[in-house]
Amino acid sequence: MQEGNYENKLKMAKNTNIRISLPAVCFVWQIAMIILFGVFIRYDEESDTHWIEHRRKKNISTNLENDFYYRYPSFQDVHVMIFVGFGFLMTFLKRYSFGGVGFNFLIAAFGIQWALLMQGWFHHLDEHDWKIKIGVENLINADFCVASCLIAYGACLGKVSPVQLMVLTLFGVTLFAVEEYIILELLHAKDAGGSMVIHTFGAYYGLTISWVLYRPLLSQSKHLQGSVYHSDVFAMIGTLFLWMYWPSFNSAIADHGDGQHRAVINTYLALASSVLTTFAISSISQNNGKLDMVHIQNATLAGGVAMGTASEFMITPYGSLIVGFCSGIVSTFGYLFLTPFMEKTLKIQDTCGIHNLHAMPGVIGGIVGAITAASASESVYGQEGLINTFDFKDAVANRTVNIQGGYQAAALFVAIAFGLVGGALVGGILKLPIWGDPADVNCFDDDVYWEVPEEDENFLSRHPNMNHATSIPDV
Amino acid sequence: MQEGNYENKLKMAKNTNIRISLPAVCFVWQIAMIILFGVFIRYDEESDTHWIEHRRKKNISTNLENDFYYRYPSFQDVHVMIFVGFGFLMTFLKRYSFGGVGFNFLIAAFGIQWALLMQGWFHHLDEHDWKIKIGVENLINADFCVASCLIAYGACLGKVSPVQLMVLTLFGVTLFAVEEYIILELLHAKDAGGSMVIHTFGAYYGLTISWVLYRPLLSQSKHLQGSVYHSDVFAMIGTLFLWMYWPSFNSAIADHGDGQHRAVINTYLALASSVLTTFAISSISQNNGKLDMVHIQNATLAGGVAMGTASEFMITPYGSLIVGFCSGIVSTFGYLFLTPFMEKTLKIQDTCGIHNLHAMPGVIGGIVGAITAASASESVYGQEGLINTFDFKDAVANRTVNIQGGYQAAALFVAIAFGLVGGALVGGILKLPIWGDPADVNCFDDDVYWEVPEEDENFLSRHPNMNHATSIPDV
Amino acid sequence: MQEGNYENKLKMAKNTNIRISLPAVCFVWQIAMIILFGVFIRYDEESDTHWIEHRRKKNISTNLENDFYYRYPSFQDVHVMIFVGFGFLMTFLKRYSFGGVGFNFLIAAFGIQWALLMQGWFHHLDEHDWKIKIGVENLINADFCVASCLIAYGACLGKVSPVQLMVLTLFGVTLFAVEEYIILELLHAKDAGGSMVIHTFGAYYGLTISWVLYRPLLSQSKHLQGSVYHSDVFAMIGTLFLWMYWPSFNSAIADHGDGQHRAVINTYLALASSVLTTFAISSISQNNGKLDMVHIQNATLAGGVAMGTASEFMITPYGSLIVGFCSGIVSTFGYLFLTPFMEKTLKIQDTCGIHNLHAMPGVIGGIVGAITAASASESVYGQEGLINTFDFKDAVANRTVNIQGGYQAAALFVAIAFGLVGGALVGGILKLPIWGDPADVNCFDDDVYWEVPEEDENFLSRHPNMNHATSIPDV
């Protein structure tokens, strides 16, 4: 009881009441979205009722040529990754499953709206009427953009308030749109699955925020910083939906035809390969060869991250296997050695280990992409194939593959720089004592922001039927 | 122990033995389905081996023009919503997860068969050979039809026997088919995502049944009428799969091309918007701004329901955001104030709060649809676009948008009327004391209809390894 | 405590340390995969950058004619069945959920790589350059092939080490490829959904292995051989994703156009029908008509298995209902009577009851396929339709439907024979005392191969807030 009092005092030291701030942020921002959408966002020619006239004008023979039919199945897979994949992957903590899946839901739902605007302004603003015309590809890109913020959330899981997460997302999406514009439009780098644009940026953004928000006394909530049996099974739902649909992620906005087809094959193979090396390293690192669920839940996905940039390229099937092989090893070693090291020495508390799952494999993906691009050749790609794959036309019609490789490498540095600088700035904002974040002793605890159902210790005694059943020994 | 005896007596008052009735109903109805399918149901021209001749005759250049490729991805998403979405959404009760997901499975599997027949007789009966020719669109419509019965199940969850649910479904599907025929064929109203046809009808059907079956002593099973931590996480699986795939629901049978494309965009936006307002109202209503899982699990979906009718229309992206904004607020307020009010004053016990998730957003959807239709114009839709969107041809070739708006409003009243009258009739049938429904003290308890595994209190003591592990303090 | 010591002694009798063997197997086999992929596997013409030239050469008008757009949505559904469907179906045991979903993940990820090679050598080896050219159809076939090994895993669940599972998969995939070659290429039998090739083979392969590995003292771990409440709900995730996506499974590699369309309709109906008969038999077999989760989780799927061979045929919608009707009954009766009989009399310990879910319905599917094929006629199929459906061209251009029926029956025997003989051989290999399998007392226990999180009995006492909450009675 005395211990209880002491803890209660510690809690009182921090005000986690978000009854004003969270509703205010949600309402103000949602109303802002409505106004900005009213001013800027319209249907594009494929989702507008004028499509039938557009078809006739462009001599398009069938409704199937509407981009909807090329991309909608992939979009839905990506959508599942964002909400169930990321959401359930973060349910592994014993008492933060509500926060894991619930706040993921909140910030993703906000982020996709803001992303449609930000990405629209940078990429799709119609010069004639200053409107952004949206279709299914914009929806996919908005999901992609939000993914970077969800990655960043992984580093902060359990240590921040939902209001802080909304701020993290607002700035994250903004930074993403600028970074993406520089990488894809100015540098003309290719990054279909976002190894650099999404994963590297998102991970360093989150890690830097976590570094700024360092909590020296976090061990006070150490008893909540692990999983229980069933929370680990819940997290596997997230892992598997991410793993299964990653081929859709890396191919969703790839070129129609062979581009999407090849991106799927490459990602499928890289993922399969990283599963085996993850199991191997996990087993070799433990007493009796026992496997660690943290590794299986996370490092098995490294192959998908690392295949993000090169997924469209002719990296060959065995090349994909090699990428998965290496990234599975690197990622699992990260969980074993780097995460503890970073926490102790670098003062970076990375709840979900995003450095291992997104940062390192993302950087690998960027490097693999640069090398694969630099070594592309007409003999492998075919003359037209090379032009199509790298979009060597218009302003970059004369670019060589070597120069393309250089720009790919430059893009990687842009992603890292945006993550570090952006994270430092946003971390500074989030450090202000106005956001209702939890005390150290209260981290990883749903009870702070959620009405948690009472655990029913006395359930059986009030339920005579079942009581009866359990009184018969079953051995 | 005394209490236990008392409770046992109460239970004995009701016979919940369904060993004869449930198998009898299942067998008789399944055999009836086989006979009726034998008489009436055949493949349509796109799923028949004569497709190749049909293609040649109609000069269709590619297999892709088979409707299968337009609709199959959406069909599968809808299928997931019906079985995993609705099923897991109903697992939130601490001891009724088997019944939630299991009975949902049973009645949906029966309902889709009966729906193929009922909808076939009303919409697709071939005049020449009196056969119903089915293809993928019929499968989607059958799933839609069943959705209305699953909504009705939500009001009765935990308080009825599986035999009653089968009866509820038999009549529910029948009523649905008639109502749908009146609304879509006679009134020629548009309702691609079924705000009126599915949600409004289903909700009032279930609420009226629940009203007829009112249980004054339901508080006797109050200790089972809440969630536990993990059952709330299970329910989030249902919520998210409904939320993610709702764009497919509202676009699955929309017009090829821009119709499906636009329905997806509108629904995606409305859903995103209702997430933010749900979080806002949930937080503002509680002490310290704590969020309530009941709201997050349900009211976040209101935007999808409310966008059902207008999803195909040119409601504009910001219009969709506004619809989601309002329906999220209305739905959450419903959970806060209306559900307790209805239980106390109107004697309607609505276990899942379908009035808040389906009835009110469904009515909003019907009204939004009527207004949007009435305000449609050639300047926005284009001449052809207007005709295509509202199918102003054949018998209704000369209908104006204003008249269409009127018919949309009339359709809403038809849906409500069918729900109320149908629910009263079916509720009366279900009140007969022959269906094996549970006693008041036994509601919300899987133990009545399921072999529930014994909870293993002494698990650790018989499992020395783990016992050992837990004896080491981990703090 | 004494009991604990005794158990510990028993455990020491078996060495379950896999710290060398599992990583060694994973690394060696993954490196072998990389080398073999390097030598043999390339992109096919639809996933290669030369696709654009190929299109021009073949006069293909649109990118949509790339097989990717015909098959990718079905592929993703199948992928979900393999990893989430099979994986979560095996989480039902109270303390083997990690092993169920985790080892399923490991062996599927390895198996698909090996399957691409084995199936490629037998079916797709290019005679000119001795390369295997892969596209999306190969990915589906690899998933199919792995399914047979996952079925076999079901019989061994909880009783084998992950190293044994890797060996089971290596040989299982090898045997599968040969068997599939004989059935599909030499006998020219049709088996789109693999009733024979996948389910019958996989089930008898696993059952024979389980028979060879018979454990007379398995009752020592009987206390772990059941479910708990939440593990049964997890298993329903597996059940439902298998059930919902089975139409995709049976149609994924069916003929473009009406073939895929019809396979979906037939499977959808057979599955719906088997749900009703499963509920009926489950209820009739128990006291008070209570339902058994084991039946609902498994036998409801029997209709999908039994429709595997005939899914493409003109079996008619009511024919599909009849197939589902019978297989649901047979499968549930299997769980009630055959599984206990087999364990006691035949010494076959079948953890998941794959004999009831895969073997018997698979055989039914083979027989139904043979009969349906033998009774096909030009009057029903149309002249071209008959040729297309059964591929009566080239070497088998003159085959009659009767002869086709005979070959279908022969194929069923090939599948059974491969399962029995292959299972005996592989069972013998797995019986060697070098694989680190658990002692009898240690079966069905994740603690042997996994770092299991400590169950936190004292959670509440260290968490004053919640303690406080639960001290208020909620009745």
TrEMBL record, chains A, B, C:
Under the subunit heading, UniProt states:
Homotrimer.
* The protein, known as: Rh family, C glycoprotein, like 1
* Family stated for the protein in its record: Belongs to the ammonium transporter (TC 2.A.49) family. Rh subfamily.
> What are the protein's GO molecular function terms?
ammonium channel activity
Annotated membrane topology: Multi-pass membrane protein
What is the native source organism of this protein? Cyprinus carpio carpio
Biological role = Functions as an ammonia transporter. May play a role in the elimination of ammonia in the gill.
What sequence ranges are listed for the domain Ammonium transporter AmtB-like?
Answer: 66-447
